[in-house]
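Justification of computing resources. Each target in the renewal requires a structure prediction run like the one illustrated here; the chain below, 268 residues long, is used simply to show the kind of job we budget for.
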Amino acid sequence: MALQQSLASRNRGGVVTELAPASLSGFLRFLSASPEGGAVAEAAVHGPLSSLDARATTIFAAQGSDLVLAGDYGFTPEFLERFHTFSISSPFRMCQAYRQGEVIERPSGVEHEWISDYDRELLTASLLSPEGEALTSTSVPIMSKGRAIGVWNVVTPADTTLDRGAFNHLDAVSAAMGMWMALREKDRSSTATVRRERLSPHARITGRQLEVLRLLGAGKTNLQISVRLGFSDSTVKKEVQQIMVYLNVHDREAAVARARKLGLLDPE
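Resulting structure tokens:
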């Protein structure tokens, strides 16, 4: 199963009209603290998306020509390991939602032609609850200042029909996520500036590389770093290699040790 076994079956079915504005305001307050992506996904499912009987969600941020996983709740590690980065130009539903800037409820069917049998089985399993209930996924673009900066997907019972009020609710949740993404980037830039000031004026290390360094110091793998920061695997690998060049070391452990000595990372 691509959905976690801990998810309970809470089928209501029918047309979704009972929305929870109070949960949306609480969600906004929660986002103001700039939490990590996984916490945002979980809070969304149990907060404003509970009115849709949501079972799981994923949040993707635009990074260059890709959509990269920035947060998730309800999916298995096996599923996330295979589906954490998508080319924006691909025919997948969420990529279409990003490109078109509008909600897309159903898959086109063409996307399955692009993937392996194993991945197709994982996608099919993601639309079945642990109890065997049929589910469906809706993709919603994340907008900021009139442009798409990401997309999120919500998994709900297949017999749930979204009405106009539900679509307005999805737009409101999307706007909240857009503010969170913008706030997160602002916080990262601010932290990176403080760290970078500890280097000499001639140092070329970037704010993004300092974020990668921090997670290297916490013992994270490239895949874990890519999921945490919303970057592709290849981007993280390049950043790690560049960090080692700048710090004049030959492996990750030496990079962390050198960074601690320079004051770029806190002591152990």
